[in-house]
Every structure is written in structure tokens, then in C-alpha cells.
Write a structure and sequence with these properties.
The protein is mainly alpha-helical. The chain contains five helices and no strands.
């Protein structure tokens, strides 16, 4: 939905690492934690941990709020 250039700008603005950005893109594409883990070659538990840390970092409490935060930043 968003261009690569837009994602790069969002990542810089929100200070997201490459891995965090990959996970945010997966969430934005409505992938499950399991699907994101499979795509990135890590365990679902790792993705769950990243999600919790992203929620804290971006001051949100769930996926919907995370997506709204990304849209606001865009």
C-alpha cells in the first residue's frame, strides 16, 4: 500500500530498526505473528517479543493503534 520510499521515511521518523520495520510492514499487511515469523525465518515467540517492544516504543496497545500511528506518521 505504501511505497518503499514512504516506509523508509516512516522508519527514520519513528527510529525503527530494519527488523522492526519488517515486522511493522507485516502487521500493516495483516499477517499473523506466525506468518511474519515464517517470512523472516524466526520463531513466532521472537515476533511476539518484537511486537510488545514496538507497542511500548510507539506508545500503542494493539495492532489497530499501531496501524493508526503509522498512518499518522505518513
Amino acid at each position: 500500500m505504501l511505497s518503499e520510499q514512504a516506509w523508509d521515511g516512516i522508519a527514520r521518523s519513528l527510529r525503527l530498526s530494519t527488523r522492526e520495520l519488517q515486522i511493522v510492514c507485516g502487521i500493516f499487511d495483516d499477517c499473523t505473528e506466525f506468518a511474519i515469523a515464517t517470512d523472516l525465518g524466526v520463531s513466532p515467540h521472537t515476533i511476539h517479543t518484537y511486537c510488545r517492544r514496538l507497542y511500548r516504543k510507539l506508545a500503542v496497545t494493539d495492532r489497530a493503534m499501531l496501524m493508526l500511528r503509522i498512518i499518522q506518521e505518513f
